[in-house]
Amino acid sequence: MNIITQKLKLPILGLLLTFGMFSCQALEERIRPKKEVELNIPETFDFATIQNVTIDLSSKDDKGNAVSIPYIGIYDKDPSMGGTLLYVTGTDTQGIGTDAYSFPSHIKNVYLETNIPGVSNVETPIVNERISQSFIIPEGTKTGRLSATEADPYYGFDNTLKGYLLYEDNWPYKGDFDLNDLAVKYNYNFKAEGLPQGRTRKLELIFDVVAIGGQFDNGFSIKITKAKNQRALTLDDIANIELTVNGTPISNYKNSSAVSQEDGEGVLFDIFSPTNLAADLQGTDKNKQTNCNSLPTAKLEITFNDDAVDKGLGISNLRLGNHPYDPFIYVNGNKGREVHLVNRTRTQRANNLYPYTIPDNSNDNIGTPVYKVVRNASTEQNMPFAILVPAVKTSGNTPLGFKFLIPQERSAIYQNDVYPSFATWASSGGGSNPNWYYEPKNNTVIPCK
Ligand SMILES: [Ca+2]
């Protein structure tokens, strides 16, 4: 490098820095919501709409001998009263059923159905994120599953988990909280493929973009994170990984830099690149919401090895129990600038790459990968930058699955003309109106897929 180049570099750097600061401030000014709503959200509220639940079931006859129940349906309430089937599990030939699933946070009790004559169906509470129930089967009752001494082709059930992930991409600067900068519908399929209850052979994660209402070209990734009291997933647990984006398989994905292990924490997968989620028009909002069928879709398929440590087949659902794992965006192609759901951990890749100079309520210590709370406390609002909405309708007689309506551009999710119950829910720390997402004002939300 010669002297002249060196002398030129400083002014150019200064110009770049000035422009960078100006553009951030301008952006922050421009995206202020039209109307401010007074929110008094408790500092500790985590904005969780789902709870990860361990399912702990047992079955025996009235003499204390183990009896298997091949089918136990978990409903939000008695199906004859309009209850919705949420999950299917069972107990094995040892009379044990250990499993994991996630349920909407507002569900406090579940209804367990066995379909076995002489065995009453039962309503039981979810206590400390656990469903515990023992069944007594009258001796000699046929339960439909062979005994342990016979050739027993007992098997698990495929289950699905659906929801929406909504992101605000201006973090750590204040956003307008329309939470539509990227909105993704997810559908997780847990495929047993002949394995016993509580174990999974193949995990299929489908991500269907339903809105791009932001100004940045963001990327979308997911880390399969360590579940509570479980060993973290490693690449050794995985036999095969395939990613398909818009119907096209990504060649050699498994061995590419898009897949990486974070020791003791899990495995990270890049799903949509910033090119996949690119802006329509430079400098203006790329709002494709009215043409959502053209938005990208991706399918990640993870096939598990038989677990070498617990010597089990496939992988235990308990190890996969931390739904929906850690799906996040990175902003405008910057892998140091990640936006997560509240209380998710920043990845090792992002650590120290983004300057945390803006007042923000993230529990973030530079030098550690801990990124506990992602929200903005610099002003009057204490809001998350990402939120999840479960796509299970559990009230009334509406069948499983519902369509969440995305807030329109500049319509903050907490405004009274968008989701009027959101403010009450958040201000009460989740105690009131926990299913606020069923009740939009339809002139400010967009039907999509
Ligand atoms: Ca937006």
Automatic annotation (TrEMBL):
Domain DUF4842 positions: 202-437
Coiled-coil parts of chain: none
Domain of life of the organism encoding this protein: Bacteria
InterPro entries linked to this entry: DUF4842, LruC_dom
Name of this protein: LruC domain-containing protein
